[in-house]
What does this fold into?
Amino acid sequence: MTHAILPWVPYPLVVGSAFLLSAWMRGLGASLDVSTYVPIVITALVVTGLEVLLPHRDAWRPSVQEVTTDLGFMAVVQLAFPPAAGYLFTTMMVEPARELGIPTTLLWPHSWPVWIQVVLMILMVDFLRYWLHRASHETDLLWKLHAVHHSPSQLYWLNTARFHVLEKALQMTADTLPFLLMGVQPLVLSMYYLAYATNGFFQHSNIELRFGPLNYIVSTAEAHRWHHSREPREANANYGSTTIVWDLLFGTWFLPPAREVDRLGLSDPAYPKSFLGLMGAPFTR
It folds into this structure.
């Protein structure tokens, strides 16, 4: 019974606890940055422990080289690059738009309850990123960048960081720039990022998980594993980042009921493995 019930528990328990912890810390007077990043870091540690205690596949345990590479992506692409890109967005686009009196802030429902704004932002971001992600699988130029994310032959939570810096820049034009232009309040941005990060950790995790009806709402690990399949007809599906509703609407949802995904990654055995090699791969492969 433990083996039957346990896979259903971690996702709702850990993600729900992250939001409760964030709200509790804000209530104690913690800054928005602290109350956002502390739950994210704790979630990453919990997911790491769950991968050890409740692995989906032993063969997906990462090597030291894989962990080192993905830590490089986490540090450079996910932590160092976004603040720099956000600063450039603000100084080169957002502030000039405000000085010119362009009424971009009128496009966002600032008076709505925060939780409704968060849901709206998740849906809007995922709509924009759905089409960017789908185009990355359907056009050669964008695939050269996106192949970096598909290069691992196993899944574990730190794979969520493995994106080429140029693709990360494209993603930020969809999930950051429009919402800065519309003046979305920092709390809404914070709660969106908390949802995106915690779900992303589970989405790529090597944990034995079951989601049931959530597979029709959230971009879950059960669905996203198929997106990393080595078979193109299986990988060209489940493009959603946080929610899966756009895949359902546009006919790219894929979750066969009676089998597991087989091989993951790319068919090119000589594809680079190191951080610097992967940064150069779109231009050399």
Notes: The mean pLDDT is 95. The radius of gyration is 19 Å. The first helix runs from residue 2 to 5.
